[in-house]
Amino acid sequence: MSARAPKDTDFFVTLPDVGDFIFARRTLGDAMKIRGRYLRLLGESGAGDTEEPDPELSGYANVIATIAVLLVKAPSAQWADPQAIDLIGNPQALDQIVSLYTLLSEAEDSFRHQAAGPSAA
Q1: Which of 27, 60, 70, 114 is the most interior residue, by most CB within 10 Å?
Q2: What local confidence, expressed as pLDDT, does residue 22 receive?
Q3: If pLDDT is split at 50, 70 and 90, which confidence band does 47 have?
Q4: Please, are residues 18 and 79 in contact by the beta-carbon 8 Å criterion?
């Protein structure tokens, strides 16, 4: 269930009641891939035809694109492709995937704070 090759800089995110996910640290190339996938998802939904896409749809597209591009390993096959998660079989999946995105973002923020070092007061 590996989406991309693992590296030493990968990190874990634990989603309660689902398991451990491994994500890659974001690179410039990843940012470009995320944006491209986001735009494709909006285009596939028909939202790319409007100036301002629906905020909810735009948010979901960003969540799916980010997780899909940065995912190295999911805890199970059903979580390996976030776009294909069954919302009927798992009614909590939508909340869970948004929670996973939040945990991923928090982990990335913690790396930014570490890289910046202590602030000068």
Answers
A1: 70
A2: 97
A3: low
A4: yes
Are 54 and 102 contacting, i.e. CB atoms less than 8 angstroms apart? Answer: no
3-state SS track over the chain: CECCCCCCCCEEEEECCCEEEEECCCCHHHHHHHHHHHHHHHHHHCHHHCCCCCHHHHHHHHHHHHHHHHEEECCCHHHCCHHHCCCCCCCCHHHHHHHHHHHHHHHHHHHHHHHHCCCCC
Using CA atoms, how far apart are residues 36 and 75, in angstroms rounded to an integer?
A: 26
Q: How confident is the model at residue 64 (pLDDT cuts 50, 70, 90)?
A: very high
| Partners of 21 in beta bridges | 13
Give the strand order in the sheet containing 11-15. 11-15, 19-23, 71-73
Total-model pTM: 0.86
Is residue 88 within 8 A of residue 11, CB to CB? The reply is: no
- Do 80 and 1 form a contact (C-beta atoms < 8 A)? yes
How far, in Å, CA of 37 to CA of 82, rounded?
13
